[in-house]
Amino acid sequence: MNKQFDVIVIGAGPGGYMAAIRAAQLGMSVACIDEWKNSKDGPALGGTCTNVGCIPSKALLQSSENFDHASHHLADHGISVSGLTLDVTKMLGRKDTVVKQNNDGILYLFKKNKVSFFHGRGSFVRTVDGGYEIKVASAAEEALVGKQIIVATGSTARALPGTPFDEELILSNDGALRMGAVPKRLGLIGSGVIGLELGSVWRRLGSEVSILEALPTFLGAVDQQIAKEAYKAFVKQGLKIELGVQVGEIRTTKKGKEAQVSVAWTNAKGEGQTLEVDKLIVSIGRVPNTIGLDALAVGLKLDERGAIVVDEDCRTSLPGVWAVGDVVRGPMLAHKAEEEGVAVAERLAGQHGHVNFNTIPWVIYTSPEIAWVGQTEQQLKAAGRAYKSGTFPFLANGRARALGDTTGMVKMLADAASDEILGVHIVGPMASELIAECVVAMAFRASSEDIARICHAHPSLSEATKEAALAVAQRALNF
Length: 479
Ligand code: FAD
Ligand code: NAI
Known about the structure:
- The protein is α/β, with parallel strands linked by helices and 479 residues long.
- The protein folds into three domains: 3-156 and 287-355, 3-Layer(bba) Sandwich (FAD/NAD(P)-binding domain), CATH 3.50.50; 170-284, FAD/NAD(P)-binding domain; 359-472, FAD/NAD-linked reductase, C-terminal dimerisation domain (Enolase-like, domain 1), CATH 3.30.390.30.
- 32% of the residues lie in helices and 26% in strands.
- It contains 13 helices and 22 strands.
- It has helices spanning 14-25, 47-52, 54-73, 88-112, 173-176, 193-204, 224-237, 334-348, 377-383, 398-403, 431-443, 448-453, 462-472, and strands spanning 3-10, 30-34, 115-119, 121-126, 132-137, 142-151, 155-157, 170-171, 185-189, 208-212, 240-242, 246-255, 258-266, 272-277, 279-282, 286-288, 321-323, 362-364, 369-374, 387-393, 409-415, 421-428.
- The strands form five sheets. Strands 1, 2, 3, 4, 5, 6 and 17 form a seven-stranded mixed sheet that branches.
- The structure holds flavin-adenine dinucleotide and 1,4-dihydronicotinamide adenine dinucleotide.
- Flavin-adenine dinucleotide binds next to helix 1, strand 2, helix 2, helix 3 and strand 4.
């Protein structure tokens, strides 16, 4: 007999595993199916985020930042290092250990919450009565029946047309996170989040990094005052970023052990150029992943981008089928996927699961870090909203000076009449942590004056947030 569950979750990335755990916490019987394999063909729970995304990229960002500090910045503190060497194999090994700790942690959480895990590909199958069941394609093929299904099958890297990833010379995020040696010349197509984070990793380790970006504006979705500050910092560090380019033919050549990639491109002035590199990372966005679900066979509606169509509560076109995370509309972020997964589980239990899409933070983990929540100044202008702006530079913050990292600023935008905070944009040290206070403030619909009146520890980077709030009312104290 088919195994019966209250809820079947397909995909154990942040969207799926959080949905499974929350549904189990709420008393439902839950199965979660995931097909990701580790190097020994065993399960590797956590999806893109844990295996080839958030976690390994942050591990390498930390390792490479440590190397960069030892190479260039410790001397400022009177610490000299001689004979500094780099062991890329060990660095990658540490990253793999961090990934495995996360894989195992999710498996442990499944056991703790009595979520039944199935390793294999899950797909919809029509049943004779016009319903459907979920087939798990694995060593022991199984069929599961669920009262409710949550699809959380994530996304995959978008390839350039006619240039598939070979993960040797033309790399997606997967290959880019496991290069066994530092390439002398590294090219990247796309200066979005992955381009900047992974470009930074390999630049810090010694690569000459060139990034080709199609748009004429650097980080067009980011508040432009912040993006300009970040651009200056990246260029100063040695990242070569060409904007407004058109990428043409990409050729790979291999002669014995020598291999390289040649990219024909046209610059913003329309002049033909060639970029020759040892490896090329293509980071031009990601596509929703419904391959293998057999979604169309059961009539699950997809949009023109291939994303599963959902309403604002994550209901799909099929009764009893929900979808969350990268496979649906909205930002492709792990914490957005998690929030949706939890909210759907709570809705299944009759609760009011809720995701506030206006307060989802973004972070780019470069150095300086870039983080924001809410609307940018260009969005407010386009909407004709009257706003006030306050900025405070880290140059005037005591903790930033003590850290030796005074790049960037905090910028706060508030409604001109009510003073409600509409957006906060940060470029600078630990922006990823500083943004949390601003998310809380916006979730509680705080005014800039609320932040300005709250006592912040001294010396701390968070004082820059308070000072930006004071600056909204033209009364910054330390600048
Ligand atoms: P995924 O994490 O993609 O998980 C989907 C899972 O479903 C996978 O395990 C897949 O194998 C499985 N699956 C798919 N189809 C089937 C099927 N038919 N049967 C069984 N299993 C199936 N986001 C952040 O918020 N912060 C970051 O710092 C960050 N860094 C990133 C760095 C990189 C290099 C990349 C590529 C992404 C990064 N992201 C980051 C984005 C983040 O990884 C995604 O938003 C997040 O993983 C989406 O979660 P998800 O659960 O929707 O899907
Ligand atoms: P992205 O959307 O951030 O950036 C892609 C860039 O490529 C854009 O600037 C785009 O204009 C450019 N581009 C597109 N086609 C091009 C072409 N043909 N030639 C040149 N440039 C081209 O996508 P990215 O960097 O691939 O990352 C995918 C997603 O993964 C992100 O949007 C984000 O949702 C998630 N992510 C999140 C991270 C975080 O939260 N820190 C880290 C990494 C990824």
